[in-house]
Amino acid sequence: MTIPPEADMTAPDWYALVDGMVPVPFYANARWASTFGYTLEFAAGVEPTSFTPLASASGLAANPALSSADLASNFSATWDTTSLAPFPFP
User: Fold this and answer.
1) Is 36 helix (H, G, I), strand (E, B) or coil?
2) Were 8 and a residue from 4, 13, 27, 52 both cysteine, which residue would form a disulfide, CB within 3.0 to 4.6 Å?
3) CA–CA gap between residue 15 and residue 44 (Å, rounded)
């Protein structure tokens, strides 16, 4: 049996209008593995066809004591939205 890794974004809220430099706190972990990696991506629209990487890492040490149920963010990235098209997206 393979237990999948966990991931969760705690901000911004779904469908929130954002502008400028936006903090994106998130949780990523693979509690039953020794190491793990992640890629955080964003896309515009309801059904996007392409995604842009925002942050990524590999070879991180897993933390068996940390769980997504704790609602904790163990990573953070900054999303520069200044180059995005104005709302509403096409």
Assistant:
1) strand
2) 27
3) 10
Residue 36 belongs to some domain of the structure: yes
pLDDT digits (tens, 9 = 90+) for 31-46: 888 888 999 998 877 8
According to DSSP, residue 20 is labeled S
Report the C-alpha gap between 27 and 66 in whole angstroms: 10
Q: How far apart are CA 25 and CA 78, in angstroms?
A: 8
The model carries a pTM of 0.74
C-alpha to C-alpha distance for 58 and 87, rounded to whole angstroms:
33
Residue type, 10: T
Tokens at 10, concatenated? 């705690």
DSSP conformational letter for 70: G
